[in-house]
Every structure is written in structure tokens, then in C-alpha cells.
Amino acid sequence: MIMGVNIGAFVFYMLVFCVLPITFGVRRVVGGKRKLKANAGGEGRCGQCGYLVVGLTKMMCPECGRDLREVGILPGGNDRKQCERSIRVGRWMIRIGVLLGLLVIYAVIAASLQRV
Ligand SMILES: [Zn+2]
Description:
By secondary structure, this protein is mainly alpha-helical. It contains three helices and two strands; from the N terminus they run αβαβα.
């Protein structure tokens, strides 16, 4: 106990509400960016159903049967969207971790001031 603050509880709350979400968030962002980069070459995917259409000889999707000139070919398709969502969620986890960390610090300061 320093200045009426339980250091063990403080460290525990910081770990759970601040360090953990930030760690997971950073991992998501880094992993998502790495996947996006690996995907940058752009595997072509069907604009209708997302089926991988690299190496096809006809302009026809074998999965949904649509003409690829009509529905278009997506670069990276669903994987790209998934990576971007993962990065977005990761960034939010980091923000929430920082916010909760500040709240824990604020709560500890408020508690220690009350006991003086
Ligand atoms: Zn298709």
C-alpha cells in the first residue's frame, strides 16, 4: 500500500483492462496489415460471389455462372475486407485499452485523494 493505494489491485486492473486489449489490438492490426501486404498482388475474385477466378480461361465464374465482364473482378475479394475489418477492430481495442487504462489511473488517484 502506497498512499492508500493497493498496488497489486492497480497492476491487476491495468493488466486486464489496459495491457490485454492493447496487446490483442496491436496483434490484430499487425497481422491484418501483413495479410493485406501479402494480398497486395491482388488475387482476382468474382464480383458476385467472391470465388477465386485466377487462371480461368473463360470470362465466366465457375461458382455462380455470372459473366465476369458484367459483375467485375475484385482485387483480393473477401480476404481484403476481412483484413480491413480486423485492423479496424484492432484499432478500437487499442483505443478502448488506453481509455480504460486512464479510467483505472483516474479511479486510483480519486480513491487515494479520498483517503487523505
Ligand atoms: Zn461468382
